[in-house]
Amino acid sequence: MIIKFTLNGRSRKVDVEPATPVTDLLRETLNLTGTHVGCDTSQCGACTVLFNGDAVKSCTLLAPSLDGAALTTIEGLSGSSGSNRLHPMQEAFHENHGLQCGFCTPGMVMTAVALVTRNPAPTEAEVRHGLEGNLCRCTGYQNIVASVMAGAVAMNEPAIGE
Amino acid sequence: MSNIIGIGKAPRRKEDFRFLTGRGNYVADVKRPDMVFGVFVRSPHAHAVIRGIDKTEALALPGVQAILTGEDVAADGLGSLPCGWGIHGADGLPMKEPPFPMLAQGKVRFVGDMIAFVVADTLREARAAAECLAVDYEVLPPVVGVLEAVRSDAPLLFDDVPNNLCCDWELGDKAAVTAAFRKAAHVARLSLVNNRLIGNPMEPRAAIAEYNRGRDHYTLWTTSQFPHVVRFLMAALVLKLPEQKVRVVAPDVGGGFGVKQFHYGEEAVITWAAKKVERPIKWVADRSEGFVSDRHGRDHVTEAELALDENGKFLAFKVTTLANMGGYLSTFGPNIPTNLYGPLLSGVYTTPAIYCNVKVVFTNTVPVDAYRGAGRPEATFVLERIVDVAAAEMKIDRVELRRRNMIARDAYPYQTPVLVEYDSGDPLGCLEGALTAADAAGFSARKAASERAGKFRGLGFSTYVEACGLAPSRFAGRLGARGGLYESATVRVHPTGQVTVLIGTHNHGQGHETTFAQIVSDKLGVPFDGVDIVFGDTDRVQFGMGTYGSRSLVVGGAALSKASDKVIVKGKKIAAHLLEAGEHDIQFEAGVFSVAGTDRSKSFAEIAGAAYVPHNYPLEVLEPGLEEQAYYDPINFTYPGGCHIAEIEIDPETGTVTLEKYTAVDDVGTVINPMIVAGQLHGGIVQGVGQALFENAVYDEVSGQLLSGSFMDYCMPRADHLPNMTVETHSTLCTHTPMGVKGCGEVGTIGSPAAVINAVVDALSHLGIHHVDMPATPNRIWRIIQNAAMQQAAE
Lengths: 162, 795
Hints:
The complex is a heterodimer of chains A (162) and B (795). In chain A, 32% of the residues lie in helices and 14% in strands. Chain A has 162 residues and is an alpha+beta fold. In chain A, strand 3 (48-51) and strand 4 (54-57) form a beta hairpin. In chain A, helix 2 packs antiparallel against helix 5 (142-156) and helix 3 packs across helix 5. Chain B has three domains: 16-22 and 486-632, Aldehyde Oxidoreductase, domain 4, CATH 3.30.365.10; 31-140 and 202-255 and 260-291, Aldehyde Oxidoreductase, domain 3 (Alpha-Beta Complex), CATH 3.90.1170.50; 296-470 and 636-794, Aldehyde Oxidoreductase, domain 4 (2-Layer Sandwich). Helices cover 29% and strands 24% of the residues of chain B. Chain B is built from 20 helices and 28 strands. In chain B, the strands form seven sheets. A seven-stranded mixed β-sheet of chain B has the order 3-5-1-12-9-10-11, sandwiched between helices. In chain B, helix 10 runs parallel beside helix 19 (747-764). The relative contact order of chain B is 0.13. Chains A and B meet through helix 2, helix 3, helix 4 and helix 5 of A and helix 1 and helix 18 of B. Chain B: This is Carbon monoxide dehydrogenase.
């Protein structure tokens, strides 16, 4: 079937089998391999993307559900391609050593962006609760939590002058 | 020169950008033209005879390219998966080493054992054919626990391995220990289980293999911590191919923790199959597949006895352990519960006599091998637990008992009674630092506050020492290592003075691209941004033993340091020629070669330029070019150590243990990048906390099925399980590594399980509890509390 959706700010039209998980569509068909698959029970969150602005584990979505929707993956988070610009949340992960092997990182960053969009000034406990659907085996989460707290501040900076 | 970022600084990581923007290149991301897909058929039974495999129906399905089984392996005369260690028992005889075929032959020995490899045009077709493969099993009774496996009536995994006993190993002076126990004022005794763990790096294992008939050349992309070792073991010993005809690439790897430091059968099978189908083959493990095929860790049953005099001085320590090896010997398998366990039983204490007996046992479970810490967390757990038991029994304060027995800072180098000689350390300094950082003095007030809220609060201590920087080859060879454990590095200076380092270690989260660039920036005075680190490709990097055992900085960094020194030596010769001075008058500092006592100088980049454009160059005595290589084999292990303090609270209504505070003061030697070291400590500590509170690999004793086979059943630590930790370093320098480094990759995992469980036991001590096995789950703790209440009511 043909589906039309907005992917990282650009409209896309794709012919897919209806039973295709969005992870497969992204990774195999569209060559967007930044969205990772770390489990087969929707427990790890490595495949988290923004689906109409919500953090969703893309292994739980089938491709037809994208029709008419807006999807953002890690590749599109900082805006259009062709530059080394980072989203404030990506920058915060870099600055606070919020990643080691990098495998959980795309999912963590997407979850964090959605979390801060809903709750612009989260407490540490709220950040920890908000990340409980994303597994990381490297960092012990401490620097990820610090990154999200810093990223929240940075994401809200433009609003300070208003 | 500007932008030198040297040792001790904390530049942000060079490798971050690609990971933060989804541009990492993990094996599962690799696509090759005309690629087909492979699926492994795995045994659903823990123990069974394979009576026959009928491929007919599966081969007839659409898209199927090949189905390979153990019979095909035997027909091609391929070798079995090698074990890298050959240890000897107390009787002097070599360990029992049954073959480990890459696809099962005749029998399966664990749930997940590989039966066949199915290759098809699409993954869906490969899966469909795998489902259809008809395997006729004669199911046998399995044995999954070590205590059961050594009984005389236990099922035997191998006909020629009586009692399923691989090796009955010992270390230490048994007679001295027996004599010391006779004169002891007190003997503390403890039985414990060190729970089986599954490492679960977030990236599942994967491999892609490709054969080029024109060049008779193979390429294997694999999720490996040591691609050169995979090439050597697979090419030379399993597939019997010339090594130079095989390229192994381990690109970005999503965490290892030991799980990816073995040569797996999947790697050999897919490489062998790639030639048969003459198309690139891709295999990516499901997480469920990883649970039943990634090598597991720990799994000990131990009896320990500590003899003390009337003042609490340790006189002797005796440990008897049954260690589970699973169904076959994995790459490092028998080395872990023996050589990496017994020599650590001295800890940071002056115990004069130690004896350790380890029975290494086969069972119908996934093979057990190294997992972060590997043997050393197990040793630390036994020792630090029994010290607490002894303190409680002798009514001596736990910290005071430790102080009385610690090796003094000025007693180093310190020869233990169990092989190893510690070069440096300051256990007491770490202990005192940790007591302050953890506000141990304020604990009683916090405990009182918890009590007012109806909660139990506990404080737990663990000191530790580990042997890492694996390893001095000569020493390891005496212990049974079949390979060397050195490392190599090449420093390739380009004509502009930029640098590429080719190194045999593998970076899968540890930040090597940053740390190693800092070392080069520091040594050669070149900009940090002008140094790139290349690893993980046998066609690009000369050789290497890879990354495990906290060895990358200690051994690889030393090779890099040596190679950098060689660059400076050659640079001085070039500079002497250009500056018309004697070689011995040339000084090198911060990227500038100068003639002592003059203002004449040449920059590093100028010297590099002269080496590649040798118009004015001493060609008679010096080769052009500026590239140096070094191999480094350490003369001893390094011995990081430290003190960890955990503070927990128990809700007696639910049995839930909450980690409230965690403090670590570690001696890791010289710190190159404190930000990266802290990150290693955080992650290591949480893996140990995971063992203590959450994680447990559980097998059904009757069926041999893995019951904890998914993230829904195997509890991984999550962000909301944990507090912020306090990690500090209290460093003494290693006396034999070039930069004084000791390594930091495993210390967190080694110190933390004992600290957490000691805190849990402390919180329950008013109930008469003296030990709690891991993991301290709500269920286990609630039962302990209920049983204690019933017992008290009965009394």
